[in-house]
Amino acid sequence: MTYRLSELPTTTPDDPHRSANRVDPYWGGVWQHGSVAQWTSRDHLGRMEASGLTGRRPRALATDPDVALNRIGWDWEAKLDLLGVLSSWRTVTAEQFAAFTGRDLDDAKVRRVLGDLFALELVDIGALWTPGSRGPNQTRARMLRPTVGHRFDQLIRPRMSYPEWVSVTAGQAFLTGGQYDRHNTLTVELALRAAEFLPVATVLGERQAQVAELAYVATGAPVPPTLTSSQKTGDAVIVRADGLRIVVETTASWSKSAEKKAEAWARAMEHRPVEDAGFVVVFVVADRTDAGETRKSLAAQVRKSIARTVRARPGNAHNRTAERMLVVDWRDWFPAAHTVSEQFLFLTADRPSGRDGTWEQVSLLDVAELQGPVAMESPTAVAHFASGLRLVPHQLREGMTRPNLSDITVRRFGLPSIPYPLEHRGGKHRGLGMERGPAVPAATIPPRLVF
């Protein structure tokens, strides 16, 4: 059974950029040809103008760099929101950014932020162009990525509080550089739809899906020498309500590199059961809409490779890697534009866990079919900590409790609470921040110091 996105209960009913309203990046003709957008940075656009290769630049890209620098502190939260999304997901459409943050692209503040960050060479703007491409959704489908360089460290980081830096980067370096545009936007769309329609605890981006970190460091296991400097990473992580990490690997092709990554995941699984390690991997095959029979051959190729991998690293009777390596076709979950199947609503995928390696369907959301991390210490804590990160869709951050980074700092200095200077008045000493009644409440932590 299939459903229109507009028919489903949603966690963001009032969001103008929710899934039913966004351009469908798979079925909408966005990637009919090629897989890379046409990108421009401020420097690149300036050189093209000097060569006479462009006409009048759009207003959104015309902000003067000096003006942008003078108001760098304006719209601070909105700027950090965008940089936080790009820090983890790397490449998004403008309306995907809006969906992550709950902001409206038609808001003058958001338009100003995009113009300022482009002028400051912090963000590149990407466009999808084919003959005859016009229409109002051209702007909504505009793509965003971090500009290559050190501008974040030069302009933004010195102005950030520590909690702000953590909320943007999740405690990691702010990466720039090229990415696979089609691959990234499809992965982002899948994560946003999971956050909107499924009973999940949180969703995390590429930077939180590294094999070494997720499969070893996060659970206290030693990292193998082959992974100590490895950049192998999944594309996203969907965290189930009981803390199970569902690693998403989106693929439109299959190569030796992909096989090696699958082997790295299987190796991490074979000696550590899901009850302890707390993760599974699903390979989402997202070939082109016009692939025809090629699509079927790609899906078959991925299945054969995963079957070989689990035969080479089978685990044991109580921990079969075949039960934790799954494959699904994008069209099985999303069979038409702005449409989902019942399989997506249960995150149903196939795994080679049947008798003699036959493939069988399993729901990734069903605890009875797929064991959760019952032996892991605090398996659901990741959702609480992640709720302070701007890379997480806004509806999954709201209402969550999490440790306050300023409280952690205070405890490190051996103090029971935030110290206040004392004032002497009427022969009594009283902390300046202490509550003095309803009219004068106690001093609170400034918002920029709250995680």
Shape designation: globular
Question: Biggest sheet, strands in spatial order?
Answer: 6-7-8-9-12
**How far apart are the termini?**
42 Å
What's the tally of helices? 18
Strand content: 15-25%
Measured as a percent range, the helix fraction is 25-40%
Beta strand count: 17
Major sheet summary line: 5 strands, mixed
Give the C-alpha Rg: 24 Å
Textual characterization of the structure:
With 451 residues, this protein is α+β, with helices and mostly antiparallel strands. The chain has 3 domains: 37-169, Arc Repressor Mutant, subunit A (Orthogonal Bundle), CATH 1.10.10; 203-397, no CATH class; 405-449, no CATH class. The protein is built from 18 helices and 17 strands. The strands form 6 sheets. The protein has a 5-stranded mixed β-sheet with strand order 6-7-8-9-12, sandwiched between helices. The longest helix has 20 residues, at 293-312.
Short description:
34% of the residues lie in helices and 15% in strands. It is an alpha+beta fold and 451 residues long.
